[in-house]
Amino acid sequence: MTVSKVSLLMGALILVAAGSSPIAAAEDREPGDDTFKSVVDDDCDGERCIAVFRGLFDFVDRRLHGLKGNGRACADCHMPSDSFQLSPANVEARFQALQTRRLRNEHADDPLFRPIDANDYRINGDSASDFSNLRENALIRITFPLPSNMRLIDPVTNLPSSETSVDVWRMVPTINNVKLTGPDGINPWARGPNTSGGYQLDGRFATLQEQALAALTVHAEIHVAPPHGMLDDLSAFQNVLFSSPGVRALSNAVSAGVTPLPDADPPLNGVEQAGKVIFTRACGQCHGGPGQSTPQAPAVRYHDISTQCPRPVDTGHSPPRFEFKTCPQSLARNVRTYLITLPNGLTLPDGTNTIRRTSSDPGRALLTGFVGVGPPASDDWNKFDVPSLRGIGKTAPYFHNNSAATLEEVLTHYTAFFKRVQANVPINGKLPPAISTDGVHADRPPAPEEIAALLAYLRKL
Ligand code: HEC
Ligand code: HEC
């Protein structure tokens, strides 16, 4: 797609975001100006432009004609004005604006605030009104059926409850660069679904169509199946969204099979260039490949980087060898304890076959129930897919639970993470690839004096 077509598309998007119609804008053009027509018939970064346009309209459409949804559009959460993600500041601004509008009109509405995403939905159903997970942290409820070997512990009785599903709370990721971050067929994990990565923070969906159907069902609560082609159109639209011209060019080169691939970075000054070298060494083993989302062997596919609550504490060591920021109550309240029966008929050395584990979001363990077998790194507990970092300067806050407000906080978290990995190495074992190139020296983590340069580079991604 040429630059003019990209800007035309973006222009259309801005018109939609501002509440006017690009169709009307097209109709207002001089006779003979067929810019829009040529776009429609053309190829847009490997997608049919007409499908991209239709996908754009579907993405921002709150009415979803005939699907009997709850008034939500994709764009209500993936806000076009906020790099297609959702930040706590925008949620709160929308919440306050809604209260003001309601003073004059009791029917004023913002479909972001639907009962399904209220904290008290399980208790109060359609009259639920406590939106603090949304307002404080921009987190959305995601519900999983419990795997057959996992049960929840009732916090009041400390006994297994009769619940058959669990709610976890996740941030809204940007949909920029999704063309580059889906399954890539490389470096497979031992268990599915999607051993080589997928969509969602846990990689559970293989295609954007599958993902969109789930979003329409769960977030927009549609009651009628979407019409033929709508999921393909949504996918086409998302596949042409990139965080920068450099990433777009990189993606097009990947599609065309060009080697070597172009560098997606903008021009870098000396400090940023130094930061890039540190990034490649310290972060690239997990955030690798063109999408920055492909772990490079021997680093494994899915990782637990201790972002869940509660965070590990180095008890028994004074001073502690690593120290994570404690979760604030607004995140700690989402923690649950699970009773897990070991998979495959396995037992612990003492003959029992159950363990208890606590987490605000066990990640892929909710897809497989594969927990407690082998050393911690090899099961699915707390494991997430590795996200892309392209455009990261514009998508604060960070991590699946929005627990790091800034990139500085992200690096403070990683400092503790790398120290913990080093502290937990088995007595005669090798250092893991997350911190070591040779299994002997912890030569990957950034040194304190390297942080400023690394930050400068991260802001350029
Ligand atoms: C209520 C808010 C909300 C709405 C509405 C919503 N999403 Fe999402 N979206 C999320 C959240 C939260 C996640 C992360 C969920 C997870 O990982 O389990 C997500 C994840 C995604 C992802 C995965 C991105 C990646 O990098 O893997 C895509 C793609 C996506 N949404 C597209 C859509 C589309 C298309 C629609 C409309 C049909 C939509 N979303 C509607 C909240 C929303
Ligand atoms: C051991 C693998 C691993 C290493 C090494 C690693 N990351 Fe990550 N990174 C992950 C995983 C997994 C996630 C998702 C965790 C989550 O969302 O809670 C993540 C998430 C992130 C996020 C949040 C992205 C978002 O959109 O919210 C940032 C920022 C980030 N990493 C930066 C870095 C930087 C900078 C380094 C190097 C200092 C680094 N990572 C090293 C695995 C890794």
Considering the chains and any ligands shown, give keywords for the structure.
two-stranded antiparallel ribbon, Cytochrome Bc1 Complex, Chain D, domain 2, 461 residues, 16 helices, mainly alpha, single chain, three-stranded antiparallel sheet, binds heme C
Walkthrough of the structure:
The longest helix is centred in the first third of the chain and has 17 residues, at 88-104. With 461 residues, the chain is mainly α. It is globular. The strands form three sheets. It has a three-stranded antiparallel sheet with strand order 4-6-7, with no helix packed on it. It has a two-stranded antiparallel ribbon with strand order 1-2. A two-stranded antiparallel sheet has the order 3-5. A hairpin with a 2-residue loop joins strand 1 and strand 2 (47-48). The chain has helices at 3-17, 22-27, 35-41, 49-60, 74-77, 88-104, 121-124, 132-137, 208-218, 230-238, 245-256, 270-282, 329-332, 365-368, 407-423, 451-458, and strands at residues 43-44, 47-48, 139-145, 150-152, 165-171, 336-341, 354-359. The protein starts with a helix and ends with a helix. Mean pLDDT is 91; it is low at 18-29. Among the domains are: 1-70 and 182-264, no CATH class; 270-330 and 372-458, Cytochrome Bc1 Complex, Chain D, domain 2. The chain contains 16 helices and seven strands. Bound molecules: heme C (HEC) (2 copies). One heme C binds next to helix 15.
Quick summary of this structure?
About 30% of the residues lie in helices and about 5% in strands.
Secondary-structure blueprint of this entry?
Layout: H1 3-17, H2 22-27, H3 35-41, E1 43-44, E2 47-48, H4 49-60, H5 74-77, H6 88-104, H7 121-124, H8 132-137, E3 139-145, E4 150-152, E5 165-171, H9 208-218, H10 230-238, H11 245-256, H12 270-282, H13 329-332, E6 336-341, E7 354-359, H14 365-368, H15 407-423, H16 451-458
Antiparallel strand pairs: 1-2, 3-5, 4-6, 6-7
Helix pairs in contact: 1-4, 4-10, 9-10, 12-16
Bound molecules: heme C (2 copies).
